[in-house]
Amino acid sequence: MSDQPAHAPYDALLLLSFGGPEGPDDVVPFLENVTRGRGIPRERLKEVGRHYFLFGGVSPINDQNRELLRVLREELAGAGLDLPVYWGNRNWTPYLTDTLRQLVADGHRRVLTLATSAYASYSGCRQYRENLADALAALEAEGLPVPRVDKLRHYFNHPGFVRPMVDATLAALDALPEEVRAGAHLAFTTHSIPTAAADTSGPAEDHGDGGAYVAQHLDVARTIAEAVRAETGTDRPWELVYQSRSGAPHIPWLEPDICDHLEAVHGEGAPAVVMVPIGFVSDHMEVKYDLDTEAVAKAAELGLPVARAATVGADPRFAAAVRELVLERAAAERGERPERCALGALGPSHDLCPVGCCPARSPRPAAAGADSPYA
Ligand SMILES: CC1=C(CCC(=O)O)c2cc3nc(cc4[nH]c(cc5[nH]c(cc1n2)c(C)c5CCC(=O)O)c(CCC(=O)O)c4C)C(CCC(=O)O)=C3C
Ligand SMILES: [Fe+2]
């Protein structure tokens, strides 16, 4: 037996997230960070700013990440793993580059990244890898050591991510008035993205036919729907729908929108709908505003009872899944063949994004993938 820790060769875990404003003065600079060079119409920005101001200028995402950090540290320590966990964001403090400066100052050189996005897409995967490359370039320019950075495989179909959503769906069904419960439909929701980005999501062999982004969400939706049917004995209609569209109206994005979907199923006689935000790891502003505010208002207008399933957030089963994924990847890096848990039909995702995975509209360096300019 060697005396290497089970997480070797990694010496740090990085929680990489989107970031969000923490007060009214943060909202405009945050939105400027998010939208720099992305061609989002001014009107849309004003509208999204209004969503944040409705909640005092505070996004729920940072507190969700602080709680996730707490349970991850507890989970790792409880398993006897001495692996420090750092937190850095794309768009708000703590900024990723500052976090990596601290991480190398603390002596770490081999980092494994957990992004708060479970699926393949440019926005949810490659853009984070570009952020990592930018941060590594900044460290290099400052003459600091450049750590080697890897990213965990997509965890959309890991049981520690899916099972909490099954329980959350059952709990949301229970929250509906009893007389509409048996007939309630399930609406699985995720962030809409441009159809062009969806079609090229994932590795090249998945491109076309909606790409990996839609296929992965459909797989999770089907797994949850089947588990709920097994648990309740009721086979209910379900659909994958979208929310939070931005961008110019003439550019096609994934549809239908959740609000249009509520109207459609209401018209077809659905007695109630449970909305299950499978595309979001925790309660982001998209969940609080686009679902809990806008879609709930739409349902009220229709007289359609709705309930919203909780997001995974800091569920201890998710923290345990992250520990398993860390140990799995560490073993693979050591040349072992670890067991890889996955539910559904797609199987475990790749460890290393191949060249051409989730391409950007204009190519830029991205770390933690086969095309990384860093080792
Ligand atoms: C797939 C996806 C995820 C899920 C994966 C993941 O989690 O990473 C996600 C997450 C998030 N998106 C967020 C916020 C925003 N996203 C925007 C804009 C955009 N999102 C896109 C996609 C996604 N976004 C896209 C294609 C755009 C268009 C512009 C572009 O191509 O980049 C804009 C600009 C205004 C607007 O148009 O809405 C904002 C403010 C927050 C923080 C919320 C909070 O504060 O709680 C989070 C977690
Ligand atoms: Fe990718």
From TrEMBL:
Residue positions binding Fe-coproporphyrin III: 59, 128
InterPro entries for this protein: Ferrochelatase, Ferrochelatase_C, Ferrochelatase_N
EC number: 4.99.1.9
A Pfam entry, by short name: Ferrochelatase
Catalysed reactions, as listed in the record: Fe-coproporphyrin III + 2 H(+) = coproporphyrin III + Fe(2+)
Keyword Ribosomal protein applies: no
Subcellular location, record wording: Cytoplasm
Family annotation (CDD domains): Ferrochelatase_C (cd00419), Ferrochelatase_N (cd03411)
This protein's UniProt keywords: Cytoplasm, Heme biosynthesis, Iron, Lyase, Metal-binding, Porphyrin biosynthesis
Name of the top EC class for this enzyme: lyase
Protein function: Involved in coproporphyrin-dependent heme b biosynthesis. Catalyzes the insertion of ferrous iron into coproporphyrin III to form Fe-coproporphyrin III.
HAMAP family the UniProt entry points to: Ferrochelatase (MF_00323)
Family the entry assigns: Belongs to the ferrochelatase family.
PANTHER family: FERROCHELATASE (PTHR11108), FERROCHELATASE, MITOCHONDRIAL (PTHR11108:SF1)
Protein name in UniProt: Coproporphyrin III ferrochelatase
Lineage: Bacteria, Bacillati, Actinomycetota, Actinomycetes, Kitasatosporales
Gene label: cpfC
